[in-house]
Write a structure and sequence with these properties.
Layout: H1 3-14, H2 18-26, E1 34-37, E2 40-45, E3 56-61, E4 66-69, H3 76-95, E5 102-106, H4 112-115, H5 118-125, E6 128-132, H6 133-138, H7 142-149, H8 163-179, E7 189-191, E8 197-201, E9 204-210, E10 219-223, E11 228-232, H9 250-261, E12 268-271, H10 280-304, H11 312-319, H12 325-344, E13 348-352, E14 357-361
Parallel strand pairs: 4-5, 5-6, 6-7, 11-12
Antiparallel strand pairs: 1-2, 2-3, 3-4, 8-9, 9-10, 10-11, 13-14
Helix pairs in contact: 1-2, 3-5, 9-10, 11-12
The structure holds zinc ion (ZN).
Amino acid sequence: MNLLKKISNLSTLLSIPHSISHSISHSISHSIPQQVYPGIFVIKQGGIFGAFRPPINIYLLAGSDGIIFDAGYGQRLSASYVAREIKKIGSLYKSNGTPFKITRILVSHNHPDHFSGLALLRKYLGVKVVLTRKIANMLKSKHSFASNFYPTNKQMYYKKNSLRGLVNKLLHLIYPLLFGITVMPDPDQIIDDNDNAEISINEERWIIFHSPGHASGHISLYNAQKGILLAGDNVLRVIHTWLGPPDSNIDTYIETLKRYLLLPKLELILSAHGSPITDCHRRIKQLIDHRDRRAKLVFDIICSSGKEGITMESILKELYPRQGIVKQELARGWIALTIDSLLKKSLIKNHHDKNSRLFSSCNKLMSAKIT
Ligand SMILES: [Zn+2]
């Protein structure tokens, strides 16, 4: 479907004011970012190397006191692209006589694809950087960022002196270049981590919804009147969010998903990766079921290993027998967290051999207790 048709269908679906959708249609040659809801635009930053540097959505809540949600990658080219796209939207608004001023930028969490562009976007657009206290603490220095982002080999249950463990450590040296990681020691405003703090955006009330699990400081933006949730990385339309040490928690993540289901009105989820979600409850329930099934699968594999137990490497091979190393390594994080959760609930136990930790079950009959 071409872009023109897409926008015209979308504007019908979402009742975008005619003046704006008309201008958008006329501006195709200037490729204005997609308006996913009246006044909300998505700027898509491209990715490379698949899941290692994925494409990301940056949202602009446009209006007289607008906000940018998430900052994307930190390379000069990436940030200047975002700034240019925002300026295009500004020109469109101004040509319609609609007030347009973007005053702030806020990020959903402390992962590099979400915050690295903060410093440059502040410089290019003159916006204020607003962070919650928890995220601000994580981004105040390279050290605080690293200790909340890079897992140790022990946390990921790598075999001692393994090649894969070595590659894991080498990747940590490459990430700053890959993402353009730039920390933020001097945000302009810090919001206390009160649950459900309110923020006024374009004279509308939005709630800063604390939604930990994927990252402990993760926040979402929720507008109860419109039923819109900017869910960051927590709910993605097609893929499953990455989970892993040191900062994710699988049980907290499921709690967050369940809290989303309790929101009084939820009609549109705008995610940091992928397209908008309109069947919100169905997708959230799918994600909860998926995590539940995966936890049971890991538990069953550990139970089948008998008294000798099983290593992380063997669990990976059983779960992903035909997939390559990359797929296995991307999954290592959630498996490590699932193991941590099972250990905490005393459903499994572990012991060491010379190079690895081995996991064995306490009692299969307790599997009902997993979730
Ligand atoms: Zn993330």
